[in-house]
Write a structure and sequence with these properties.
Length: 472
């Protein structure tokens, strides 16, 4: 269908990266200037046809035929202009954007799959700073690919033609009021599929064999796979779609196989093939029987000659972890566990686990019952004492300096002993004396002759008991 109205435009620059690239050549079929803002001025000044009547899975696009001297064609970005319903605000549509190689000149591509595709969910959204940028009407889209990342830009076109298709991934709706035409009424039972919330804009002339619709092949069917590739003039639709491709041409792509044994050279060529039994992974031939293992790793070897990733500038890879180069690992006294910089002091063998930097036998049960510090019985620790305190018999006690100066027995001032007296001797004021010694006045230091008094026996008994308790 055709609906005529004037449109005004804002421009959204969305990309897989924020990096801008120079434009060497613009492939387009419409009548407007190559510079998209200038084209928008002219588009806004005239009434143009739009076509929003697409079902889920149907696509619109164009076929481009590079000149022989253009190859290789290195696609830098895409530009689109879509129409918005005149009676609807904030309309949007999600889509897959596909690039197809095409060695022929018909509407049907020669390849079975596109050589590159992205979704609107992949696009960088400058308004939010994140990804996700659906198509919106009355808006010029400028999509720029990251030329430094092979996964984020199409491969170079080295010969033949190529196509760009925009495939709608939303269900069509009944939008007759919004678009101002009954042709957008959804009545699937009679073959009326409704419309999308954005539509193509067509200029005032038609380039034959350039504009393509990929639609559901069965007439009156709104559900199913798109199977009919056709030039729009064969469907009675006129006007070139406003769609452009920006590209570097004429040998600007330089193949790069440095450090690569296989895979893409960045220009659509190859850095080599792997022998039978090996497959190419990130430019390296890996034995098929080897299973890469990057579990718990941010970087380093994957065990099969490949990589688990690279560290950013200022970080280096240690044991599969990216470590800040300004951090000094500390493994003093440790055989396992964290090194203080995110790395590891080592791993324990099977049957052992790491506790406080030591490998502990898993069959051993640590025992810290009633203990504040010291050994847990399995080579681990029950804890450390605070500064100024020391561990004695698994209890943290205040630090004390024993004093045995001039003493041969008795208390050392810290709960310990300076020594013990031999049998038949007793400790008096830090000195061991015979039980029968006289004192300094010549008197007798023992009881008078005869039966020993009960008080002396009791005193001696208590002293000996005290000594036995202390000597345990």
């Amino acid at each position: 269908m055709k609906t005529f109205f004037a449109v005004s435009f804002v421009f959204l620059f969305c990309s897989l990266t924020t990096q801008a690239q120079a434009v060497e050549k613009v492939y387009k079929h419409d009548q407007f200037p190559e510079n998209l803002p200038q084209a928008a001025v002219e588009i806004s000044g005239i009434a143009l046809a739009t076509q929003p009547g697409f079902a889920l899975g149907e696509a619109i696009g164009q076929l481009y035929r590079p000149d022989p001297e253009d190859y290789p064609v290195n696609i830098l970005g895409l530009e689109f202009v879509f129409a918005a319903p005149p009676n609807m605000a904030d309309g949007e549509a999600n889509a897959i954007i596909e690039i197809w190689a095409h060695s022929g000149d018909t509407a049907t591509p020669t390849g079975a799959e596109p050589i590159f595709s992205i979704t609107t969910a992949d696009l960088y959204n400058p308004a939010t700073g994140g990804t996700g940028m659906p198509l919106v009407g009355s808006t010029g889209f400028v999509i720029t690919f990251d030329q430094d990342d092979p996964a984020n830009h199409p491969p170079a076109i080295t010969d033949g033609n190529f196509m760009v298709m925009v495939r709608f991934t939303d269900e069509s709706q009944s939008l007759a009021t919004e678009w101002g035409t009954y042709q957008c009424t959804a009545m699937p039972s009679v073959g009326a599929c409704g419309c999308q919330e954005v539509g193509t804009i067509h200029d005032q002339a038609t380039t034959d064999g350039a504009n393509i619709f990929h639609i559901i092949g069965t007439a009156g069917t709104c559900v199913g796979d798109a199977s009919n590739w056709t030039f729009i003039e064969d469907l009675g639709v006129s006007g070139d779609i406003i769609m452009r491709v920006r590209a570097d041409v004429a040998g600007v792509c330089e193949a790069n196989c440095e450090g690569l044994a296989c895979g893409d050279d960045g220009c659509g060529g190859s850095c080599g093939d792997c022998q039978t039994g090996y497959s190419c992974q990130e430019g390296i031939c890996i034995e098929d029987s080897c299973t890469p293992d990057c579990d718990g790793k941010d970087c380093g070897d994957d065990g099969c000659g490949g990589s688990c990733g690279d560290c950013q500038t200022g970080f280096s890879c240690q044991n599969g972890v990216c470590i800040d180069d300004s951090c000094t690992p500390d493994c003093d006294g440790k055989e396992c566990g964290d090194d203080g910089c995110g790395g590891s002091c080592g791993d324990c063998q099977t049957g052992y686990s790491c506790q406080d930097g030591a490998c502990i036998d898993d069959s051993c049960t640590p025992d810290c019952d009633g203990k504040e510090c010291g050994d847990d019985g399995c080579g681990g620790s029950c804890g450390d004492c605070a500064t100024g305190r020391s561990c004695e018999n698994n209890i943290c006690v205040d630090a004390c300096t024993p004093d045995c100066d001039g003493k041969e027995c008795g208390d050392d001032g810290c709960g310990g002993l300076c020594g013990q007296c031999a049998d038949g001797r007793s400790c008096e004021a830090g000195v061991c004396r015979d039980l029968g010694d006289t004192d300094e006045d010549g008197g007798c230091a023992c009881a008078s002759a005869g039966a020993p008094s009960m008080s002396l026996l009791l005193l001696v008994g208590l002293f000996l008991a005290f000594r036995r308790r202390r000597s345990r």
